[in-house]
Amino acid sequence: MTRADLALRTNLSRATVSAVVGELLAAGLVVERRLPTGASGRPAPELSLDRSAGVAIAIDVGVRHVAVAVGDLSRSVLAERWIQLPRGHDAETGTQTVLASIARIAATVAESGVDEDQIVGAAISLAAPIARESGRLLGRSSSRTPRRPAPCRSTAVPCPRRPGRGTRRPGRCG
Q1: How far is the C-alpha of 16 from the C-alpha of 13, rounded, in Å?
Q2: Which of 38, 86, 98, 149 is most buried, judging by how many CB atoms fall within 10 Å of its CB?
């Protein structure tokens, strides 16, 4: 991707993109490469994240699993761990599993020559909200999760609204 591509995709001015790219280059997070083309003239440099600039940790806490991965900035996965858990496990179990997984993955990644100082960020995703009183993930069977709309009597397709409300005929969606 070139600076012009970034400006087009982000709706930022070329000057702003150049300033931000300059900062990323100075920080060692981005590299520029001139790829040969068949066209005449000097090609615009292609930008990419510098794979050696660091690693990131991704954590996914699902209703039935915990997944932890470490990847470099070129989107290559260096190590990952996926653990099945009982449906609706509590927050304490999920937290302990995440911490144990990170420790195991950190050891695996350290064996490949990556230092802790190279971790530039982490992200976590939760499958559902956690109930304060029980510490459990609220899954699909929870009363807080909206139910699917009932099928319309006239079309058998799920109604986006309750049949009979705001429609011409009661019990029909359209």
Answers
A1: 5
A2: 98
